[in-house]
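Quick one: sequence plus magnesium ion SMILES, need structure tokens.
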Amino acid sequence: MVTDLLDIDHVRLRDRPLVVCDIDEVVLEFISPFTTFLRANNYDLLPRSFRLHGNIVSLLDGTEPDDTVISDFQESFFTTQDQWQIPASGAVETLAALSDDVDIVFLTAMPPRHQPVRRALLDRFELGFPMIATVQPKGPVVAQLHGARALPVIFIDDIARNLHSVREYVPECLLITMMANADFRAFAPAPSEGVLSAASWNEAAELIRAHVRR
Ligand SMILES: [Mg+2]
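Reply:
Sure thing.
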């Protein structure tokens, strides 16, 4: 059961709206720093479609690495993420302003073993909001957080699978899709019905404030 596996006791919600927010490509840049990381390892990430696999190529001979190599790169990147990742444009100031009126919780689809380095990285950028790191589907986690509260709840993510998971488990949740990297955003599938799209943190804040005011 999700409740038994996830440590969310450190998340204390107040009696006000809740914004659950993905991290990679939403709060922190991922694609751009991961590309820089790959280039330092003689590989590149080409914006040819909305995926990593198939778009990573060797700078030495143009070949595509196999899945094991890509997994090793991802593991190595997350292990040293504090040397590479920076906040997405507008994230720090927008979240700080929103946090006057709403609770903010980070929900990142990252193996929990990388949580300490990510926590330190977020804190360095004054993104001190509580974080849950899990590779489980996000819908049950948001449901566990929000429960049956009669308060607005908002979820922001760049991946349709995560947005749809939350829609399934928390139907009343406002869903916003947002992606920092413009090159890959151009290949993102059109958001499905009921999912709003924000091109920037300014736009996301407007959608959130309009929803909270209702
Ligand atoms: Mg993401």
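The chain has two domains: 2-29+86-213, 31-83. The chain has a mean pLDDT of 95.
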